[in-house]
Specification:
Blueprint: E1 4-8, H1 12-23, E2 27-32, H2 35-41, E3 47-50, H3 56-61, E4 69-72, H4 78-90, E5 95-99, H5 103-111, E6 116-118, H6 120-133, E7 137-142, E8 147-153, E9 162-163, H7 164-167, H8 169-173, E10 175-181, E11 187-189, E12 195-196, E13 201-207, H9 208-219
Parallel strand pairs: 1-2, 1-4, 2-3, 4-5, 5-6
Antiparallel strand pairs: 7-8, 8-13, 9-12, 10-11, 10-13
Length: 221
């Protein structure tokens, strides 16, 4: 379903959100106080406006309250990021996502009602570190402090040409398998009858230590 989004701040983070939302068929109003950045996005975003988002009258005149979600992607200017988030929440926007610079900034944003606070650099660092240190982990992300989801390639022959029912991952390894990905890129949602073939990857959800343990097991030949 087509949705309407506002992205405030067209740095690398905000602009990649704009591009991806538009490519997925959504409507995006992009706002930045820098005219050159807005000009770059004139033909990409549905609407692109040069404006200081700290000006409440401007936000109201743009009808911010009517959008499905607002992303506050203002970089270094902490005061602007906090003030804009506060104003947007006061306009009753249901879904406000904000980029935080550090944990102190994140705490303030949570206190003033940001629905989701993201730390793109930190989160990407964690993800890359896990992929670097793991044996055969293709991709990884943290679901919470204790839980992760990972795509793991299966090398261990004991797991090949067997059904998920036979392998009983939840019982033996305390993880759930949600899908199997073929080398062709095709993805099959996991059922008890799904079979793991050579070079397939599996999508695993579980406690981080269990996911890491399974990563080691699946690497053995
Ligand atoms: P990255 O490029 O990695 O995303 P960043 O988030 O630090 O880094 P910046 O380059 O600082 O990104 O981009 C933030 C954008 O937000 C800039 O284009 C800046 O002009 C814009 N911005 C800052 N304050 C305001 C404001 N009050 N109203 C509108 N836009 C703003």
């Amino acid at each position: 379903m087509k949705k309407n989004f506002v992205v405030i701040g067209l740095g690398r983070f905000g602009s990649s959100i704009v591009r991806t939302l538009v490519e997925s068929g959504h409507e995006v109003l992009a706002i930045d106080s820098n005219e050159d950045r807005v000009n770059e996005y004139m033909n990409i975003a549905t609407h692109a406006v040069v404006a200081n988002a700290q000006d409440e009258a401007v936000l109201k005149s743009l009808g911010i309250r009517n959008f499905d979600a607002v992303v506050v992607a203002i970089g270094e200017d902490l005061q602007a990021s906090i003030l804009v988030t506060l104003m947007v929440k006061e306009m009753n926007v249901k879904n406000v996502w904000v980029k935080a610079l550090d944990d102190y900034h994140a705490r303030v944003l949570e206190k003033i009602g940001a629905d989701r606070v993201v730390h793109p650099e930190r989160d990407m660092g964690v993800r890359i570190a896990h992929s670097l240190t793991a044996n055969n982990l293709v991709d990884y992300f943290e679901i919470s402090k204790d839980f992760s989801m990972a795509e793991i390639k299966v090398y261990n022959k004991k797991f090949i040409n067997r059904t998920l029912q036979e392998l009983s991952f939840p019982k033996k390894y305390n993880v759930q398998i949600s899908a199997i990905k073929k080398t062709s890129g095709e993805v099959e949602l996991a059922t008890a009858d799904s079979i793991i073939h050579e070079k397939d990857s599996i999508l695993v959800v579980g406690r981080t230590e269990d996911v890491e343990y399974l990563d080691e097991i699946l690497y053995r030949t």
